[in-house]
Amino acid sequence: MSNEDLERIQPDRVFDGGDLDCGSGLVLLIREQMSEIPEGSVLEMRSREPTVRDDLPPWCRMVGHDYLGRLPAEGTTVRYFVRKGKATAAAEEKALAEDKKKAEEYEWRLRVRSTGHLESTAYCRNFSFKVGQPASFEEKDTHPSAVELLLGALGAALSTGFATEISRAGLEVDDIELTVRGRLGNPLASLGLGEGDPGLREVDVKCFASTMADEAAVREAWERTVARSPVAATISRATVMTTKIVVL
User: Fold this and answer.
1) Who contacts 192 (Cβ-Cβ below 8 Å, separation ≥6)?
2) 19/244: higher pLDDT
3) CATH 3.40.50.720 assigned to 3-105
């Protein structure tokens, strides 16, 4: 379909996939949107993820939808147009239910071995990473401690998740940076030198976002990010976690 023809299309539904790729939940979102429009209707999906350009057309062919084409939009956003296949309603509903069930039942698996002095290696999927001591009080170490990896996972989950929420909301943020701080209940207990709770007593997260976008919309995106983060939800149930965003 030519660009002129695409420009004349009046989509029945529009949604923003942000910077998600097809392997990180975008297909599930597309199926959810498709389930809410009649056969023959056109869905416009907006995306800032470059890999969607190559992955979306074959997926449409596989499931029976008509990929109509794409148009550039503002900035790095691309508009993709898909017509819902006339014979795929039942199949898509079944596929959506199956995808949701798989997501609900998905289990993350890691294998961890002791691989040296104060060192373990974690293996998961197609990569591995080194972990140092359970907790370290030194200024320098060969590998991050388990506590640092836990706090790093929290910070990374919120940083990446926030960038995705910002993208899906159609906002522009120049820079995102987080500081994550944690204190143990009794650090000596982790060394066997005292009694008490060796766990994290408190965790403080502060996000700095440099943007000219509407501040209220940016703050709402941050709140959604924290609420939807599996890591943040888990840590907040185990200890006192405070989060704050500073819009610059």
Assistant:
1) none
2) 244
3) no
